[in-house]
Amino acid sequence: MEKIVWKGFKHNYKNFIAFFISIVLSVSVLFLLAYLSQAAGMVKGIETDALAFAYRSELKGQIRAVIPVVILITVLVVGYSVQFYIQSRVKDYGMLKILGIQRKDMRRMVVLEYVLSCGIACGAGIILGKIGTMLSGGVLGRMAGQSFAEGISMKKVYIYTAILCAGMIAGSLLAVFMAADAKGMTGVLQRDAAKEGRIEAPQSVLYFLAGAGMIAGGFFMVDNEPMMAHIAVFLVCAGVIVCFLFGMGYILEKFRNCAYYRRHILSWNHVYHYWKRHRSRVVIQMLLGVLAVYFSFLMIRGTLHGRLMPNDFVCISKAGSEEAFLGKMQSDFGAECVRFPFVWVNEPGSDSWIGMSETDYNRIFGGEAELAEDEVFRVWREEGSRESMLDNSGTKRLESVTLGRCTNTEWEEPEGAESIGYDFRIQGEKIEELLGFSLTGIVVLPDGVMKDAADRGKFHQVLMILNVDEENLAGATAFAEEQRSDGVLEEAFCRRTIEGIDRKESVLNRLISGIVVGAVVMLGMFVAWLVHFSEIDEKRARHKFLCVLGMDRRQARRVADVEILRSVLVPVLLAAGVSWGFCRTFLAAYYDGSEVAGADKKLLLAIIFAYVAGEAVFCVLNQMWCKRQLEKE
């Protein structure tokens, strides 16, 4: 049995290489993602009590969402390579069956063949992935600190990758078992003939219209609510699937009957049958391009813009306990400080705001608020706020709000505290970054309401805004963090700490987007090449036929070049167009119809150019390879 397996490898090594490469690439990508997942777990963020959701790193969650998508793509690639390898071995399997080998022995041989090949390929993939992690670790060491890179647990990376590899091998074996029986072998030969059948059903027009409607719905969703972009892009992708997979049959049939088609029948007849046979691959390549451009743009875009943090520190303490802290900050670090009592303003089912009295607002921030007992004034933070959100008519209401403690926490109400709902009329609103640190904004309350809410809620705390000179910032940050950990401060938001977290997240974001997008595009190229590789005999026969019809060698090569260009670049250009339109719509909505930020626009253009250029280079190399294969005949 072992001799038969090794002879099979020896005589089919060219076909086996494609399967081997697909496993190696898939395992190396999963190894890198496992490594980056461990690195993302080290970005702890800031665990707050005052704002339970603030500054927790979302990278690990993003990677957990990306890994299933990458696994699905790798399974798809392995599935293509398994199908190709089985097609190349159909004659061998059939011959063995004619020679009398039993089905159970056939299964044993196939299992042994694929276990050996998957095991060797997984080992090579881990070695390649290890080289990638060494390069990634060097980048992390330079950009995020050597101690950060050295703290990554490689043991967990190996365990996680081994689990993923086991799942991949199990999936591959399942595919092999499904194809190994006699019916499966004959079915492999019959599928191509079945694909030549026409799809004339008029209901395909309804599918096309439904898919177009889903694509338009995705654009409409992101245009009205840019924060729903993730859902919208998947709606667009679903529309592409419905439109191209189920909605093109009737249209292609009508096109086939037109005079233009008959005048160019040699060229367009090949397009017709190529689409029928490979439409799933074309649609998949298009979807991979859309997702690659969109996610790389969205992840890298977040690293281009720093947070708007106008202050070095925003600290919270109980009223009367802040004097020692402020004295140390002022005497040792030369801090400038403003402070005021505050309450949390909690909207039902929404974020919490900092509530301060109109007297303190006018004194500290130079405001001119004059409020009645049932009026408030709101100051939105700059990030994520748009002019369309504002209403200065004086008729907008703020109803059923509670004043006192932050409802985002699990704090228990102190004994004797009262939670009372308030209804206000919003006198006016504006956008101005006063606090920073992702706090929603400020609600200016009438003095009497402010005092009454603090007394009823037993909530007497002080918010402090501090700034120090740059040379004192490191020491002041360490002191503030120490005071927070010791419980002297209820909360401390430190600009330097948050910038350090953002820097690590930016480095990891770019690494993750680069690796994931590079892997997705590379695997898509591999599938396209595998399809051309599996059809090389058919291309040779077509090349001969064109020469028999009277074409010279140069014309026949030109026809082959056009076919290869069309099969690769058409889905690439469609993906570039859809992703460009979607991302532009997202940016226009995010900036509320104003001029798109120059850096974002340049980034989007650079990503699309890099994607199309990479695919074009692949197409040229693929053309050169195909020419060499045709010239061998």
What keywords describe this structure?
633 residues; alpha+beta; 6-stranded mixed beta barrel; elongated
Explain what this protein looks like in three dimensions.
The protein has a 6-stranded mixed barrel with strand order 2-3-7-4-6-5. It contains 21 helices and 9 strands. Mean pLDDT is 78; it is low at 179-199. A hairpin with a 5-residue loop joins β2 (336-346) and β3. With 633 residues, the protein is of the alpha+beta class.
How many β-strand stretches?
9
Helix proportion range: 55-70%
The assembly state of the depicted protein chains is single chain
Whole-Å distance between the termini?
35 Å
Looking across the biggest beta sheet, what order are the strands in?
A: 2-3-7-4-6-5
Arithmetic mean of pLDDT:
78
Structural class: alpha+beta
Shape, principal axes of CA atoms: elongated
Number of helices: 21
Short summary:
The protein is α+β, with helices and mostly antiparallel strands.
Present the secondary structure layout.
Blueprint: H1 2-11, H2 13-41, H3 59-88, H4 90-98, H5 103-144, H6 146-150, H7 154-180, H8 182-195, H9 203-224, H10 229-246, H11 249-256, H12 259-263, H13 265-304, E1 313-318, H14 323-333, E2 336-346, E3 352-357, H15 358-365, E4 375-380, E5 397-404, E6 421-431, E7 441-445, H16 447-456, E8 461-467, H17 473-485, E9 491-494, H18 495-534, H19 536-548, H20 553-590, H21 598-631
Parallel strand pairs: 3-7, 4-6
Antiparallel strand pairs: 1-8, 1-9, 2-3, 2-5, 2-8, 4-7, 5-6
Helix pairs in contact: 1-5, 2-3, 2-5, 2-7, 2-18, 3-7, 3-18, 5-7, 5-18, 9-10, 9-20, 10-13, 13-18, 13-20, 13-21, 14-17, 18-21, 19-20, 20-21
